[in-house]
Amino acid sequence: MTFGEQPAYLRVAGDLRKKIADGLLPPHTRLPSQARIREEYGVSDTVALEARKVLMAEGLVEGRSGSGTYVRERPVPRRVARSGYRPAGGATPFRQEQADGDAHGTWESRSEQAEASVAVAERLGIKPGDRVMCTRYVFREAGEAMMLSTSWEPLDLTGRTPVMLPEEGPLGGMGVVERMAAIDVVVDNVTEEVGARPGLAEELLALGGVPGHVVLVVQRTFYASGRAVETAEVVVPADRYRVAYHLPVR
Protein backbone atom coordinates (compact mmCIF):
# COMPACT_ATOMS: atom_id res chain seq x y z
CA MET A 1 0.00 0.00 0.00
CA THR A 2 1.52 3.33 -1.08
CA PHE A 3 1.67 6.42 1.12
CA GLY A 4 -1.76 8.05 1.46
CA GLU A 5 -3.64 5.03 0.12
CA GLN A 6 -6.48 3.82 2.32
CA PRO A 7 -6.90 0.21 3.40
CA ALA A 8 -9.50 -1.64 1.34
CA TYR A 9 -12.07 -1.82 4.16
CA LEU A 10 -11.97 1.98 4.58
CA ARG A 11 -12.46 2.52 0.84
CA VAL A 12 -15.49 0.22 0.88
CA ALA A 13 -16.87 1.89 4.01
CA GLY A 14 -16.31 5.31 2.43
CA ASP A 15 -18.25 4.39 -0.70
CA LEU A 16 -21.14 2.96 1.32
CA ARG A 17 -21.08 6.04 3.56
CA LYS A 18 -21.39 8.27 0.48
CA LYS A 19 -24.34 6.23 -0.79
CA ILE A 20 -26.05 6.69 2.57
CA ALA A 21 -25.35 10.45 2.56
CA ASP A 22 -26.56 10.81 -1.05
CA GLY A 23 -29.79 8.93 -0.33
CA LEU A 24 -28.96 5.94 -2.52
CA LEU A 25 -29.24 3.87 0.65
CA PRO A 26 -32.06 5.65 2.51
CA PRO A 27 -32.99 5.05 6.16
CA HIS A 28 -34.39 1.59 6.96
CA THR A 29 -32.85 0.14 3.78
CA ARG A 30 -31.02 -3.15 4.23
CA LEU A 31 -27.28 -2.78 3.72
CA PRO A 32 -25.89 -5.02 0.96
CA SER A 33 -25.01 -8.43 2.33
CA GLN A 34 -21.45 -9.44 3.01
CA ALA A 35 -21.49 -11.63 -0.11
CA ARG A 36 -22.83 -8.73 -2.21
CA ILE A 37 -20.16 -6.35 -0.89
CA ARG A 38 -17.48 -8.94 -1.60
CA GLU A 39 -18.73 -9.40 -5.17
CA GLU A 40 -19.37 -5.71 -5.95
CA TYR A 41 -16.06 -4.41 -4.62
CA GLY A 42 -13.89 -7.43 -5.34
CA VAL A 43 -12.76 -7.80 -1.74
CA SER A 44 -12.49 -10.60 0.79
CA ASP A 45 -15.06 -11.54 3.42
CA THR A 46 -12.78 -10.03 6.06
CA VAL A 47 -12.69 -6.67 4.26
CA ALA A 48 -16.47 -6.67 3.79
CA LEU A 49 -17.01 -7.45 7.47
CA GLU A 50 -14.60 -4.73 8.63
CA ALA A 51 -16.30 -2.16 6.38
CA ARG A 52 -19.66 -2.97 7.96
CA LYS A 53 -18.10 -2.67 11.42
CA VAL A 54 -16.86 0.84 10.55
CA LEU A 55 -20.36 1.96 9.54
CA MET A 56 -21.84 0.48 12.71
CA ALA A 57 -19.24 2.22 14.88
CA GLU A 58 -20.12 5.51 13.17
CA GLY A 59 -23.79 4.98 13.97
CA LEU A 60 -24.81 4.93 10.30
CA VAL A 61 -26.21 1.40 10.35
CA GLU A 62 -27.57 -0.99 12.95
CA GLY A 63 -27.87 -4.73 13.15
CA ARG A 64 -31.26 -6.38 13.59
CA SER A 65 -31.24 -9.88 15.01
CA GLY A 66 -32.00 -12.49 12.37
CA SER A 67 -32.66 -9.85 9.71
CA GLY A 68 -29.44 -8.13 8.71
CA THR A 69 -27.91 -4.67 8.87
CA TYR A 70 -30.00 -1.58 8.11
CA VAL A 71 -29.36 2.11 7.52
CA ARG A 72 -30.29 4.13 10.60
CA GLU A 73 -32.52 7.18 10.59
CA ARG A 74 -30.28 10.25 10.79
CA PRO A 75 -32.01 12.91 12.90
CA VAL A 76 -31.44 16.57 12.11
CA PRO A 77 -29.20 17.83 14.94
CA ARG A 78 -30.92 20.15 17.37
CA ARG A 79 -29.36 22.84 19.49
CA VAL A 80 -28.35 22.80 23.13
CA ALA A 81 -27.79 26.44 24.07
CA ARG A 82 -24.89 27.62 26.22
CA SER A 83 -25.11 31.33 26.91
CA GLY A 84 -22.88 34.00 28.41
CA TYR A 85 -25.98 36.10 29.02
CA ARG A 86 -27.84 35.68 32.28
CA PRO A 87 -31.48 34.75 31.60
CA ALA A 88 -34.11 36.93 33.19
CA GLY A 89 -35.27 35.80 36.62
CA GLY A 90 -32.23 33.64 37.27
CA ALA A 91 -33.53 30.57 35.44
CA THR A 92 -31.02 28.06 34.15
CA PRO A 93 -30.22 28.24 30.39
CA PHE A 94 -32.20 25.05 29.72
CA ARG A 95 -35.30 26.36 31.46
CA GLN A 96 -35.03 29.74 29.74
CA GLU A 97 -34.55 28.20 26.30
CA GLN A 98 -37.59 26.00 26.82
CA ALA A 99 -39.67 29.01 27.83
CA ASP A 100 -38.46 31.17 24.92
CA GLY A 101 -39.17 28.46 22.37
CA ASP A 102 -42.48 27.39 23.92
CA ALA A 103 -40.98 23.90 24.08
CA HIS A 104 -42.20 21.11 26.30
CA GLY A 105 -39.05 20.29 28.20
CA THR A 106 -38.99 18.47 31.51
CA TRP A 107 -36.27 17.36 33.87
CA GLU A 108 -35.73 15.02 36.76
CA SER A 109 -33.13 15.45 39.48
CA ARG A 110 -31.78 13.62 42.49
CA SER A 111 -29.39 15.06 45.08
CA GLU A 112 -27.29 13.17 47.59
CA GLN A 113 -24.20 13.76 49.68
CA ALA A 114 -21.08 12.02 48.40
CA GLU A 115 -17.31 11.98 48.68
CA ALA A 116 -15.42 13.93 46.04
CA SER A 117 -13.55 11.75 43.57
CA VAL A 118 -10.00 12.65 42.60
CA ALA A 119 -11.21 14.33 39.39
CA VAL A 120 -14.01 16.29 41.10
CA ALA A 121 -11.72 17.31 43.96
CA GLU A 122 -9.18 18.66 41.50
CA ARG A 123 -11.81 20.75 39.72
CA LEU A 124 -13.22 22.11 43.00
CA GLY A 125 -9.83 22.68 44.62
CA ILE A 126 -10.65 20.41 47.57
CA LYS A 127 -9.27 17.12 48.87
CA PRO A 128 -10.41 13.73 47.53
CA GLY A 129 -12.98 12.36 49.94
CA ASP A 130 -14.25 15.78 51.03
CA ARG A 131 -18.03 15.93 51.21
CA VAL A 132 -19.94 17.36 48.26
CA MET A 133 -23.56 17.63 47.22
CA CYS A 134 -23.96 15.61 44.03
CA THR A 135 -27.03 16.31 41.89
CA ARG A 136 -27.86 14.23 38.82
CA TYR A 137 -30.24 15.48 36.14
CA VAL A 138 -32.01 13.97 33.15
CA PHE A 139 -33.39 16.59 30.75
CA ARG A 140 -36.12 15.61 28.30
CA GLU A 141 -37.62 17.23 25.23
CA ALA A 142 -41.00 15.96 24.05
CA GLY A 143 -40.47 13.01 26.37
CA GLU A 144 -37.11 12.05 24.85
CA ALA A 145 -33.99 12.11 27.03
CA MET A 146 -31.70 14.67 25.40
CA MET A 147 -29.14 15.66 28.03
CA LEU A 148 -27.60 14.36 31.25
CA SER A 149 -25.91 16.53 33.83
CA THR A 150 -24.14 15.88 37.10
CA SER A 151 -23.11 18.74 39.37
CA TRP A 152 -21.00 18.85 42.52
CA GLU A 153 -20.89 21.60 45.15
CA PRO A 154 -18.55 21.60 48.19
CA LEU A 155 -20.53 21.14 51.38
CA ASP A 156 -18.05 23.20 53.37
CA LEU A 157 -19.53 26.10 51.40
CA THR A 158 -23.23 25.26 51.04
CA GLY A 159 -23.79 22.82 53.91
CA ARG A 160 -26.44 23.90 56.43
CA THR A 161 -27.53 26.80 54.21
CA PRO A 162 -30.85 27.39 52.37
CA VAL A 163 -29.16 26.47 49.06
CA MET A 164 -27.64 23.17 50.18
CA LEU A 165 -30.06 21.28 47.90
CA PRO A 166 -29.98 22.84 44.39
CA GLU A 167 -33.54 21.85 43.46
CA GLU A 168 -35.24 22.41 46.81
CA GLY A 169 -35.91 25.31 49.16
CA PRO A 170 -36.75 28.95 48.36
CA LEU A 171 -34.22 29.12 45.51
CA GLY A 172 -34.70 25.59 44.21
CA GLY A 173 -34.27 25.43 40.45
CA MET A 174 -32.48 28.78 40.18
CA GLY A 175 -29.08 29.13 38.55
CA VAL A 176 -25.78 28.76 40.41
CA VAL A 177 -25.11 32.53 40.36
CA GLU A 178 -28.42 33.38 42.04
CA ARG A 179 -28.20 30.58 44.59
CA MET A 180 -24.67 31.49 45.64
CA ALA A 181 -25.60 35.17 45.92
CA ALA A 182 -28.18 34.17 48.53
CA ILE A 183 -25.33 33.06 50.82
CA ASP A 184 -23.19 36.12 49.99
CA VAL A 185 -20.94 34.32 47.51
CA VAL A 186 -20.43 36.42 44.38
CA VAL A 187 -19.82 34.26 41.32
CA ASP A 188 -17.67 36.21 38.88
CA ASN A 189 -16.31 33.66 36.42
CA VAL A 190 -17.19 30.42 34.67
CA THR A 191 -15.13 28.09 32.48
CA GLU A 192 -16.33 25.42 30.09
CA GLU A 193 -14.32 22.72 28.34
CA VAL A 194 -15.96 20.82 25.49
CA GLY A 195 -14.80 17.37 24.42
CA ALA A 196 -16.06 14.15 22.89
CA ARG A 197 -15.75 10.50 23.86
CA PRO A 198 -17.59 7.20 23.46
CA GLY A 199 -20.64 7.20 25.70
CA LEU A 200 -20.58 5.09 28.85
CA ALA A 201 -23.02 2.18 28.90
CA GLU A 202 -25.28 3.81 31.50
CA GLU A 203 -25.26 7.13 29.61
CA LEU A 204 -26.25 5.53 26.31
CA LEU A 205 -28.96 3.51 28.04
CA ALA A 206 -30.47 6.72 29.44
CA LEU A 207 -30.07 8.66 26.17
CA GLY A 208 -31.33 5.93 23.86
CA GLY A 209 -28.01 5.37 22.08
CA VAL A 210 -26.22 2.19 21.09
CA PRO A 211 -22.73 0.99 22.12
CA GLY A 212 -20.02 2.97 20.38
CA HIS A 213 -22.01 6.17 19.98
CA VAL A 214 -20.11 9.36 20.70
CA VAL A 215 -21.28 11.93 23.23
CA LEU A 216 -20.31 15.57 23.67
CA VAL A 217 -19.13 16.41 27.17
CA VAL A 218 -19.14 19.93 28.62
CA GLN A 219 -17.19 20.35 31.85
CA ARG A 220 -18.30 23.58 33.53
CA THR A 221 -16.96 25.21 36.68
CA PHE A 222 -18.22 28.36 38.42
CA TYR A 223 -15.78 30.50 40.44
CA ALA A 224 -16.08 33.20 43.09
CA SER A 225 -12.89 35.23 43.59
CA GLY A 226 -10.83 32.34 42.28
CA ARG A 227 -12.53 29.66 44.35
CA ALA A 228 -14.50 26.93 42.56
CA VAL A 229 -18.03 26.85 43.98
CA GLU A 230 -19.66 24.36 41.60
CA THR A 231 -18.53 22.04 38.84
CA ALA A 232 -20.66 19.99 36.48
CA GLU A 233 -20.44 17.56 33.60
CA VAL A 234 -23.06 17.85 30.85
CA VAL A 235 -23.47 14.96 28.40
CA VAL A 236 -25.41 15.13 25.11
CA PRO A 237 -25.58 12.63 22.21
CA ALA A 238 -23.38 13.97 19.41
CA ASP A 239 -25.50 12.54 16.59
CA ARG A 240 -28.65 14.37 17.71
CA TYR A 241 -27.48 17.66 19.21
CA ARG A 242 -25.03 20.50 18.72
CA VAL A 243 -23.73 22.69 21.53
CA ALA A 244 -24.34 26.33 20.52
CA TYR A 245 -22.70 29.27 22.31
CA HIS A 246 -24.09 32.80 22.60
CA LEU A 247 -21.44 34.99 24.21
CA PRO A 248 -21.31 38.73 24.91
CA VAL A 249 -18.46 40.64 23.27
CA ARG A 250 -18.07 43.02 26.20
From TrEMBL:
Q: Where is this region: Disordered?
A: 82-107
The keyword Membrane is assigned to this record = no
Comp. bias regions, Basic and acidic residues: 97-107
The UniProt keywords, alphabetically, are: DNA-binding, Transcription, Transcription regulation
Domain HTH gntR-type residue range list:
6-74
GO terms assigned for molecular function:
DNA binding; DNA-binding transcription factor activity
What start-end ranges are recorded for coiled-coil regions in this protein?
A: none
Q: Name one GO biological process term.
A: negative regulation of DNA-templated transcription
Query: Mind telling me which InterPro entries this protein's record contains?
Result: Bact_HTH_transcr_reg, Chorismate_lyase_/UTRA_dom_sf, Tscrpt_reg_HTH_GntR, UTRA, WH-like_DNA-bd_sf, WH_DNA-bd_sf
Q: What is this protein called?
A: GntR family transcriptional regulator
Source organism per entry reads Streptomyces parvulus
